[in-house]
Amino acid sequence: MQATPANASGLRVDEKLERMKLFGLSSPALLLVLVILVIPVGWLFYVSFLGGNGQFSLENYQRMVERSSYMRIFRTTFEVSLVTTGLCILIGYPLAYFLSQIPPRIANLCMITVLLPFWTSLLVRTYAWLVLLQKQGLINEWAMALGLWDEPIKMVHNMTGTLIGMVHIMLPFLILPVYGSMKAVDRDYVKAAANLGASPRRAFWDVFFPLTMPGLFAGTLMVFILCLGFFVTPAVLGGGKVIMVSMKIVSNIELFVSWGAASALGVVLLALTFAILWVASRFLKLDQIAGGGH
Amino acid sequence: MFAWLKKPASETQITHGQRLWLYVLAVIIMVLLVTPTLIVIPMSFSDSQYLEFPPRVWSLRWYEHYLSSPEWMLATWTSLKTAFLTMLVATPAGVLAAYGLHASQVRFVRAAFLFLITPMMVPLVLVAIGVFYVYAQIGILYTLFGLVLAHSILALPLVVIVIGSALKSYDMSQENAARSLGAPRWKAFVTITLPQIRFAVVTAALLSFLTSFDEVVVAMFVSGGDNPTLTRNMFNALRDQIDPTIAAISTIMICVTTFLMVLAQIFGQQRAAKD
Questions:
Q1: B20 in contact with A at a CB cutoff of 8 Å?
Q2: DSSP single-letter state for residue A2
Q3: Per-residue pLDDT tens digits for B12-67
Q4: ipTM for the complex shown
Q5: Does B172 contact A at CB distance below 8 Å?
Q6: Per residue in A255-278, pLDDT tens?
């Protein structure tokens, strides 16, 4: 092989060609996403700008701003998402911390308690809560037997039930990335802090906690985004009293066959999701978040 | 026991005693994480309509009801077929894509990767109603074919992520060595690369299967008619009343998932051991 200029440029062309060929291997997957995701969602986008007479109109969006019922739905969605995310942090961070501090062999065993719900069907878990929280359910029965309360308390088909179910379902999405970033912390830093006279509390808050921020941030984002578009759990445990955006979209189609209204809601939901991801991506690589959940 | 409480628990010299609250809290959280799922299992063997725990009279009547119901059997069969076919579509497509992106190193690889994982970020309801409309137009609504395609795009991001991270820790120069010895690219991939990322491939395949098997929202819209999925029927049953048959089905589903999870853990550990 001679390194003549002609050959070199020829090789460069060959290389480019080969790279494109390799890239072409991803075409079935890209095509699949294009046809099954982008085209349908693009069509919804188009429909959201059609009025009742089939002409271009903003009435679907106007309705959303004008009607207080729609505003209430958005407020509920944000409230549920914020509270769920907050509770997940409060419950998940300590558990992840515990798991990162104990010997690996025990930690792996304890990890099953996080992975089992993570892998179990969401519908099964929602059903389990429905059974446990209902009026004649186990929790009411036991609490009354223990004398905690006298009358059965309504804990399902309302906000309480929705929040309990959602926190339970979202927890693994927070715990896994947080645990990952805790394991990645170099324990020598904490040791050095203690060596320099920091109290355990100070070593935790000034050294350990800041180092786990990327995982906490990724987990929080993941949970919040999933909550915004969540359907199954609020639909079953909310009993029609907690109406989130995704549920309104479904009822617009199933009950009113109103594609314009449903699409407009969907477009706003999607825009919100992407806006949050876009802001987050300025602080964190997106693929890191995607990898965080698994 | 008391000596253990006074022992330092970490590099900061904090003692186990000072950390007792954390241990207690963690145990409570772990119990709360698993029990709601597991408690369904004994309850499904109750004879009562109201799902007692512990059951006063044990019985298999809900299992009998499930196994003798043609509707539930049809739904189970549909779910299994769909999940299996989704695995067969998403895994090769995802492996090829992850490999192509990893090996080509062209400028827009990052953009393509983000594009492939978008199905993970778009709210499921939106995918469901969009696909529902398009399928109705082209007449593949309530078909296995349509359902499998829709579930495949949901499984694809997981496959791409799992395979992508496996390839990151794989040394591509091994493949170049095979090629410099005369193997064509596809042969180098099949005989050198693929065997080394096989655990990741199995994990990805299991994840695809589970994604489809557990999926509710898209199935609610796109499956039905002759091909209703198990999750679709379960969701509809949940909206009406608490049917104890669901407890029996849930128990079976928990067993299936646990089995697959154990498999994935085994493969995952072998993968970790290899790295």
A1: no
A2: -
A3: 778 888 889 999 999 999 999 999 989 889 989 988 887 777 888 899 999 999 99
A4: 0.89
A5: no
A6: 888 899 999 999 999 999 999 999
DSSP tag of A156: S
> Which of A27, A47, A67 is where one domain is finished?
A47
Beta-carbon-side half-sphere exposure of residue B184 (alpha carbons within 13 Å): 2
Estimate the crossing angle of helix A59-66 against helix A68-101, to 10 degrees: 80
Q: Verify that A125 and A181 share a domain, yes or no.
A: yes
How much is the pTM?
Answer: 0.90
Query: CA-to-CA distance for B161 and B121, rounded, in angstroms?
Result: 14
* CB contacts, 8 Å: B116 with chain A: 26, 29-30, 33
The residue of chain B nearest to residue A135, with distances taken between CA atoms, is B50
Q: How far is B32 from chain A (nearest CA, A)?
A: 8
Domain that holds residue B229: 69-240
How many angstroms separate the CA of residue A80 from the nearest CA in chain B? Answer: 16
CB-CB neighbors (< 8 A) of B206 in chain A:
none
Q: Say if the Cβ atoms of B250 and A43 lie within 8 Å.
A: no
Q: Which of A94, A98, A131 sits opposite B242 (nearest CB)?
A: A131
Q: Are residues A6 and A67 in the same domain?
A: no
Give the list of residues 6+ apart from residue B51 with CB closer than 8 angstroms, or none: A131, B43, B44, B242, B244, B247
Beta-carbon contacts of residue B54 (< 8 Å; ≥ 6 apart): B42
Flag whether pLDDT at A54 surpasses 90: no
Radius of gyration of chain A (CA): 25
Would B42 be classed as within a structural domain?
A: yes
